[in-house]
Write a structure and sequence with these properties.
The protein has 346 residues and is α/β, with parallel strands linked by helices. The protein is built from eleven helices and 17 strands. Helix content is 24%, strand content 26%. Helix 4 packs across helix 5 and helix 4 crosses helix 10.
Length: 346
Amino acid sequence: MPIVAAYAAPSEGAPLVSTTIERREPGPLDVVIDIAYAGICHSDIHTVQGDWGPQHYPLAPGHEIAGTVAAVGSDVTRFAVGDRVGVGCLVNSCGECAACLRGEEQYCTGGAVGTYGATDRDGTITQGGYSRQVVVTEAFVLRIPDAIPLDRAAPLLCAGITTYSPLRHWKVGPGARVAVVGLGGLGHMAVQIAHALGAEVTVLSQSLRKKDEGIRLGADRYLATSDPETFSGNRLAFDLILNTVSAPLPLDDYLRLLDTNGTLVCVGAPPEPMSVSINQLLGRRRSLAGSAIGGIAETQEMLDFCAEHGLAAEIELIDAAGINDAYARVLASDVKFRFVIDVATI
């Protein structure tokens, strides 16, 4: 099996270290990708720390992957050597269930295969994008438009599609009143995409520290949730609230901000459970929902949408040696807005 350089967690909660990992021998339908950039997602941190359950170690995380095609299998038809491509949160699925057949591989009932820390169809454990190279079946490779720089495209493969999918599913368009909770890696993409869809966008953040950035990215209003007036003065103000944070929130307070038939959608995944009063849902037929990334076709749609509208992630490019410091800064909310690893430094 090919051996490639990587950064991986050797055990639960341990700092990531320079190492090597094995990649499978490419098959007829496989695409070999030379990784140029890999985004750091909060999910990477949750996973390697064991917040979401036991993992197989050593584990190389990373599901925001951008690079170029190095080789293709004999039966590959959609990609050629040198193409600009990306890989997101999925690398396989059963391909046969109702979810897969309707293009929602993320909800595969036969078992969607995550880009790292998952058991692939051949029984191997997947390893992610904090590495020099990856082998992915053609059906799960995305084409990155020329209009988007590769380093700024990488976070779109998770942060972009995680926010695009619910905005499209709940039919956000001109006149929709959308609130985005948090202006981090997910939130800053949600603001840009909702604005490009024509919505009236409000950011709900703990403080006004990032207000200027939020307005620049397309927010019409920026409110501090630490100010009681934000909740008392904005009852029934929104049609959709997109919660992007990975920390527990007082959901009842946020539900009161929704108008009749409004929906609070959670895309962040805190390790702790959250409670909600059913009365907050009954009174105005409100909904509390969740959304997990998007299917491959929708992810390609998102990339093309971002290219058309001049959208991309706001990033801080780092060397691989800075990964552990970047993790600490993510946990401290000290990043504007996504760390991206220059994989050439691995």
